[in-house]
Design goal:
Elements: E1 5-11, E2 33-35, E3 43-49, E4 61-65, H1 68-82, E5 90-94, E6 101-102, E7 111-115, E8 129-130, E9 136-143, E10 169-170, E11 179-183, E12 207-211, E13 219-226, E14 232-241, E15 249-254, E16 257-264, E17 273-280, E18 286-293, E19 302-312, E20 317-325, E21 328-336, E22 345-353, E23 359-363, E24 373-377, E25 380-388, E26 398-406, E27 413-414, E28 418-419, E29 430-431, E30 433-434, E31 441-448, E32 454-461, E33 467-468, E34 471-472, E35 475-476, E36 480-489, E37 495-504
Length: 506
């Protein structure tokens, strides 16, 4: 038959090994799709022709791109050529690293294996929670159904210890490392350290409870089965911690060769999780299938196994979800600084994003509006909230908050908001205060009471320090609020005017 191409997707910096497989790379009649992945790095896509013969490796050609849309297109082309994809790649947008997102694939299948697994809460579910730190393609390998019988004898320990071989000793009470027992509850074997976890099958059946030793590659559980040369098989088990300290690290092994990556029990006790690996028999007609220990920490490593399965499978199904981190950049521009004592500042926000966007803006706790121009602002710090309301993003919109500092405009002089003419030598006179180096002159300075009566006036004096001492025709003015009008002229002949209020407090 015609040799088909191998299609591979990889990362420029590889962080995950084989997670996808559509056939057997060692024969020319079928093809293989290999998947490597990375998070937040440029992507590499690789293609090659299949090379016939055991042990031969295909040459790779590759290129890199940082364009997420080109990446998505290339991924889809790879999947479609592979032909094993169950559905079109879903695309989800997030706006912040580590944002929580729900992945989904077809439910109700025998087993699932998502990759990369580092950012998933459980890689063996059909709908795990992901918290990616960057743009990530999640690929799930799905076993839909078996094409043959379960080849394992006593897979759920109904017959106790029957059919098991192990480097560990079988005991009725667990008191040391490197031993195992079969029981309906882990607590029955060690009530001091093991939780009362029921089995996976029914909650009332038996399971294998293990106190792992700190020796790598020791065989925890093994059986020998007859297989058909060239057939594909899935090897599966369910695993839980019975003590939360130092969860188990295990690996599948067939005929002395490790299979797949190391899989770990969860930190939560009695939380059963399914793990599996896929194996091609090649020329083998018999297989010693094992679970081996890879945890060398002598603390903890207490776990239970149940519901083993080893059966022939059809071609695997792959599905995928592309989670794109589309971070936005928001740059505030000061259009106008507020004048002295005025609220006439203007700020504009320029927002850019590589992904879809429908930005709305809230200033100082106001409603979210599409307008990114804000007017009538006073000097000081303002709170800006920006929300991306595009429906492609998960959650109820992505909100980013910033503090925007709006500086004072050109202000060569100012007047205080209050004064206390009580002859204590501090703030006894209400007057104009000028910036250092100001060389202008006071044109006029008038103060009125709240009924409009003139209480102080200075006209055409050369001294800008002239002020009101809080007296009206020699008598103390009453406490209260007064209105002022002042005009100054700077050295360039520019006239500056200010109107405001001042509070008199004795």
């Amino acid at each position: 038959m015609e040799s088909r191409p191998i299609l591979a997707w990889s990362g420029c910096w590889k962080s995950e090994q084989l997670v996808g497989r559509c056939g057997n790379v060692l024969t020319s009649s079928v093809w293989t799709w290999l998947v490597h992945t990375t998070t937040g790095q440029p992507l590499v896509y690789e293609t090659s022709e299949c090379i016939t013969g055991a042990g031969k490796q295909p040459p790779y050609l590759s290129f890199c791109t940082k364009n997420i849309y080109l990446a998505r297109l290339f991924i889809l082309l790879l999947f479609l050529t592979c032909g094993c994809l169950s559905a079109q790649t879903d695309t989800i947008f997030i706006c912040a690293p580590g944002q929580e997102v729900q992945l989904n694939t077809v439910p109700g299948q025998f087993a699932y294996e998502w990759s990369p697994s580092q950012s998933l809460n459980n890689r063996t579910l059909s709908n795990p929670i992901a918290r990616p730190e960057g743009t990530t393609l999640y690929v799930v390998q799905i076993i839909g159904e078996a094409t043959g019988d379960n080849l394992i004898t006593n897979p759920d320990f109904t017959d106790g210890n029957a059919g098991i071989t192990s480097d560990y000793d079988f005991v009725s009470t667990i008191r040391t490392q490197g031993v195992y027992g079969v029981n309906t509850s882990a607590a029955n074997l060690n009530g001091a350290f093991f939780n009362d976890c029921p089995d996976h099958t029914s909650g009332a059946g038996q399971m294998m409870v293990v106190d792992g030793s700190p020796v790598a590659d020791e065989k925890v559980w093994c059986q020998t089965v007859v297989v058909e040369a060239g057939a594909n098989y899935a090897f599966s088990t369910w695993l839980t911690s019975v003590n939360p300290n130092n969860p188990a690290r295990l690996q599948f092994s067939i005929n002395g060769t490790r299979l797949g990556g190391v899989f770990m029990a969860g930190e939560d006790v009695c939380d059963w999780r399914q793990f599996y690996a896929v194996w091609n028999a090649a020329t083998a007609t018999e297989a010693e299938i094992c679970i081996v220990n890879q945890n060398t920490n002598p603390q903890g490593n207490d776990f239970a196994l149940d519901d083993f399965a080893f059966f022939a499978i059809p071609e695997l199904t792959l599905d995928s979800t592309l989670v794109i981190l589309s971070e936005a950049t928001h740059l505030p521009s000061i259009i106008r600084r507020p004048d002295c004592g005025e609220s006439n500042g203007i700020i504009s926000i320029n927002s850019t994003s590589a992904g879809p966007n429908e930005f709305t803006y809230s200033f100082d706790g106001g409603p979210f509006l599409e307008d990114s121009l804000f007017q009538g602002l006073s000097t000081g710090s303002h709170t800006l909230a920006i929300r991306n309301d595009h429906p492609a993003f998960v959650g109820e919109g992505c909100i980013q908050e910033f503090d925007v500092l709006l500086p004072q405009g050109n202000c060569p002089f100012y007047l205080p908001g209050a004064f206390s003419p009580n002859s204590d030598g501090v703030n006894d006179v209400f007057r104009v205060f000028t910036a250092t180096g100001f060389t202008g002159k006071l044109l006029s300075f008038a103060i009125h009471d709240r009924w409009g009566g003139l209480v102080f006036e200075s006209i055409a004096t050369d001294s800008v320090t002239t002020g009101w001492d809080g007296r009206i025709r020699g008598e103390f003015a009453a406490n209260g609020t007064y209105l002022y009008q002042v005009k100054l002229e700077n050295a360039e002949g520019e006239v500056m005017e200010r109107n405001g209020t001042v509070v008199l407090v004795r």
